[in-house]
Amino acid sequence: MPPLYDDMGTAVHLVRPPRRVVSLVPSLTEAVAVGHRDALVGATQWCTHPGDLDVVRVRGTKNPDREAIARLRPDLVIANKEENRELDVTRLRAAGVPVWVTVIETVPQALDSLERLFAEALQVPVPDWLDAARELWSGPLPETTVTAAVPIWRDPWMVVGRSTFTGDLLRRAGVANAFARHPDRYPHMALAEIDRPDVGVVLLPDEPYVFTESDGPEAFRRTPTRLVSGRLITWYGPSLLPAHEMLRRLVAAL
Questions:
Q1: pLDDT by residue (tens digit) across 182-241?
Q2: Largest CA-CA distance found in the chain, in angstroms, rounded
Q3: I want to staple 240 with a disulfide (CB 3.0 to 4.6 A). Which of 55, 83, 133, 251 is the partner?
Q4: Rounded CA gap, 132 and 241, in Å?
Q5: Which H or E run includes 158?
Q6: Sequence-separated contacts (24+) of 205-210 with Cβ below 8 Å
Q7: Which residues of 81-105 are buried (b: 16+ CB within 10 A; e: fewer)?
Q8: Is the omega angle on the peptide bond into residue 17 within 30 degrees of 0, that is, cis?
């Protein structure tokens, strides 16, 4: 087969259309599993959807067990520039394992990257849910009706900054990211810089930090908070469908 080129522009040499796939990205694990579960032979411990996925677990996104991956004899490993380490990708390739790296910082990038993943890398039909997601999330940007801060960690506090999928997703739902112009993508911030008058709401997801009713909202004295599904604001894949409705309802309630 002629070489294919992933989102990084790196040549990926496949012997055949992939029949054995290891995914190192929770979003992409779910995306593949929805219609092609039989192709998945390995995934990380953070790949929680579908809940009944029965594959070999190869540790985490940042510390994958490369020997375990090689033992699975995958035709293709799926990775992401932000989620996975360049070192792991490099060493897997050096061991003869083909790796397809995605690059996703906006919703349009996600839609295009997923389409290429299915059509070019996996060589299967583009799923209907992806067409539906493109219809929901394409079109002109709406006016923003609220400014939100999105912490992803506490002690120290970290928030969603510039050039992130989450920030772009929120913007396309009419929500402005309070830290969209920060020079860092995930900056550390003092609590007072988040809990401030011009922030209309603080969205507290349940991943990567698990914010709960008793862990997170109590820290904010000025700004109202909302607990939200981390999957629906950080994952790209079938979650884009329920994410649209969740954010529509959230914006309407603010």
A1: 999 999 999 999 999 999 999 999 999 999 999 999 999 999 999 999 999 999 999 999
A2: 60
A3: 133
A4: 8
A5: strand 158-159
A6: 205/150, 205/152, 205/229, 205/230, 205/233, 205/234, 206/230, 207/231, 207/234, 208/152, 208/153, 209/151, 209/152, 209/153, 209/154
A7: bebbeeebbeebbeeebbbbbbebb
A8: no
> What single-letter DSSP state applies at residue 114?
H
Q: Which of 185, 184, 241, 234 lies closest to 205, judged by CA? A: 234
Question: Which amino acid type is present at position 47?
Answer: C
User: Using an 8 Å Cβ cutoff, are 131 and 240 in contact?
Assistant: no
Decide if 173 contacts 146 (C-beta within 8 A).
no
Alpha carbons 10 and 230: distance in angstroms, whole number: 30
Q: Please calculate the CA angle 35-39-84 and round it to the nearest 5 degrees.
A: 95
DSSP bridge pairs for 35 = none
- Sign of the torsion formed by the C-alpha atoms of 150, 152, 153 and 158: negative
Q: Considering the entire predicted model, what is its pTM?
A: 0.94
CA angle 64, 65, 69 (to 5 degrees): 100
Instruction: Output the CA angle 125-130-134, nearest 5 degrees.
Output: 130
* Number of Cβ atoms within 10 Å of the Cβ of 14: 18
CA torsion 119-122-123-125 (nearest 10°) is -60
Element (H, E) at 41: strand 40-43
For 8, the 3-state DSSP assignment is: coil
Q: Render pLDDT for 36-76 as a digit per residue (tens, 0 to 9).
A: 999 999 999 999 999 999 999 999 999 999 999 999 999 99
Tokens of 213: 């009713």
